[in-house]
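Design request, tokens follow.
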């Protein structure tokens, strides 16, 4: 193997020669030795070009740039061109990622990603400034505090949006169908992500909301099911995965296992041997027989799509709503020796029937778009409760009007409850 460097300037020669021991002596990663090109097949001409570009920047760029910055930028560029989820993490970014996975940080409560080079809302997190301000999946973030997001890295955007609780931040948003962007001002707060909420919509009909998948999500899900069925066995359950950005893979598997007593839940495929995994249901299944409707939308991503896809393929429930996000790739966060890290896409998710989630998403069995049910005033009927001096019910009206209003506000949830009731009617007639 011959590499000519005589035509390069002296600093570029030194830089290139400093790279050679790494190029020549680097060992292939475990698990991909058979798939890696031989060392003598490396594109040495491109390495020469890289060194030449490095030298010209050092010599001619309008401002002086140190070697460390150039190398870090080169590594960032190398990863950013692979896919939107691979990234080089400096020590601050690596620590920030660790904090976010622990479920508590100062910010506005929003999951963002890059779509066609534009900073895009994946989903707002429940009960956070972002969700209360009405941010929706697919909203484009045009600027942050007046700084345009075009050309901004994902981590730069995240760093700008996080900050001290109590401080304000201005975002310029553009929503599909709007003529012009609009500005919203949010107040940062400590974002604590409780992943599971539950309620009874009606006696026997439960509502289980999972906002993201954390280490304790499966345990909290099981506890919620036990509480909802304490006084009356569940006749149906709405599992709400809308605007759920994903999270811990094992948590998603464990939640799906609560509703499945056998069969494959999900499998992954990648180049490394340890990235090829299969997860199957166990016979111990607390909620194997509860009729189930799973709500998804364009903000349902990653681990949420794993659960929806498994329950759909296993014919365990009816998936309702709109197409999910389509984030079906697996990332590993690899610590580096200098306190920094590497987030690298290493595999793809597949549903039990072999469907790739990546860029496809989960298509609902029943499509129901987001909306609000309005009752025309001219058709409003007078009922006993409208008459002056009517006798009160002996039972406390346990927020029936509140639940009715909730179902009017959330059309998808109302349709899910109606479908559960219809399934029970059909089941009783079959008996």
């Amino acid at each position: 193997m011959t590499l000519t460097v005589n035509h390069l300037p002296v600093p570029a020669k030194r830089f290139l020669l400093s790279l050679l021991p790494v190029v020549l002596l680097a060992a292939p990663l475990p698990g991909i030795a058979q798939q890696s090109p031989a060392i003598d097949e490396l594109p040495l001409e491109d390495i020469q070009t890289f060194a030449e570009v490095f030298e010209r920047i050092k010599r001619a760029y309008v401002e002086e740039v140190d070697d460390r910055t150039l190398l870090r930028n080169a590594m960032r560029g190398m990863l950013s061109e692979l896919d939107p989820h691979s990234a080089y993490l400096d020590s601050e970014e690596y620590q920030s990622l660790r904090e976010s996975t622990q479920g508590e940080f100062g910010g506005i409560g929003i999951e963002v990603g890059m779509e066609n080079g534009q900073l895009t809302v994946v989903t707002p997190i429940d009960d956070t400034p972002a969700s209360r301000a009405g941010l929706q999946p697919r909203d484009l973030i045009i600027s942050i505090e007046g700084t345009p997001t075009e050309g901004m890295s994902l981590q730069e955007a995240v760093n700008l949006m996080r900050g001290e609780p109590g401080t304000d931040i201005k975002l310029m948003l553009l929503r599909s169908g709007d003529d012009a962007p609009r500005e919203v001002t949010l107040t940062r707060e400590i974002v604590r992500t409780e992943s599971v909420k539950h309620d009874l919509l009606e006696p026997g009909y439960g509502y289980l909301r999972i906002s993201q998948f954390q280490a304790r999500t499966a345990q909290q899900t099981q506890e919620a099911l036990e509480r909802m069925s304490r006084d009356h066995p569940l006749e149906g359950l709405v599992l709400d995965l809308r605007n759920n950005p994903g999270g811990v893979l094992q948590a998603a598997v464990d939640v799906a296992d609560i509703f499945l007593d056998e069969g494959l839940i999900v499998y992954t495929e990648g180049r490394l041997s340890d990235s090829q995994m299969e997860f199957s249901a166990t016979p111990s299944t607390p909620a194997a027989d509860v009729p189930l409707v799973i709500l998804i939308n364009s903000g349902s991503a990653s681990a949420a799509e794993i659960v929806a896809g498994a329950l759909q393929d296993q014919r365990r429930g009816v998936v309702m709503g709109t197409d999910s996000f389509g984030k079906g790739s697996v990332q590993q966060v690899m610590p580096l020796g200098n306190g920094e890290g590497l987030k690298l896409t290493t595999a793809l998710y597949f549903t039990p029937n072999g469907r790739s989630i990546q860029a496809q998403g989960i298509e609902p069995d029943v499509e129901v778009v987001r909306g609000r049910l309005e009752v025309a005033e001219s058709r409003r009927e007078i009922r006993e409760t409208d008459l002056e001096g009517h006798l009160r019910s002996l039972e406390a009206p346990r927020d029936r009007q509140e639940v009715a209003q909730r179902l009017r506000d959330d059309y998808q949830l109302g349709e899910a409850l109606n479908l559960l009731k219809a399934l029970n009617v059909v089941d009783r007639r079959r008996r």
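Comment from the thread starter after seeing the answer: thanks! The domain at 194-268+279-326+348-375+397-431 is CATH 3.90.226.10 (2-enoyl-CoA Hydratase; Chain A, domain 1).
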